[in-house]
Amino acid sequence: MPLTEVRIVDLPPMRVASALGFGRHPEDQASTAITRFARAKGWVPGSPGVRLFGFSNPNPTPGSPNYGYEGWLVVGPEVDAEPPIEIERVPAGKYAVTHCVGLEHLGERWRALSVWVEGSPDRFPACGDRCLEEFLNLMERDRSQWAIDLHIVIGC
After folding, report:
1. 124 or 62: which carries more pLDDT confidence?
2. Half-sphere exposure for 149 (CA within 13 Å, toward CB)
3. Does the predicted model carry a pTM greater than 0.70?
4. N or C: which end of the chain has fewer CB within 10 A?
């Protein structure tokens, strides 16, 4: 399905608390660690002002059921790392973004956004291949109702 609702977004530089999962379901590992960290700080992921991102790291490879997933919680300078959480700095970037509701549509929406970026009439400067998922209502228990913004980097 072609995308008609893509917006261009400039993400500022971010300081993030990072958690990494690896295995058959690394998203669960990373999100559990980052959610515990957030709650210990008094934050509820998915509530206003609390930004949570995730992405494959490393990407899945053919023939292996295992891959990695990294979760990021945007934090201020007053927040320190607490193992297994690490603090990272993420550079600013320009992203093509579309919205997805429900995990069952995630793959289809990623493919459609990739096609949109590849076929865009504008030629964006290459800036790596960073793709981010921003979870907007992670505390929703029904994963078919999760709201996720999908980001593909298109410029530095």
Report:
1. 62
2. 17
3. yes
4. N
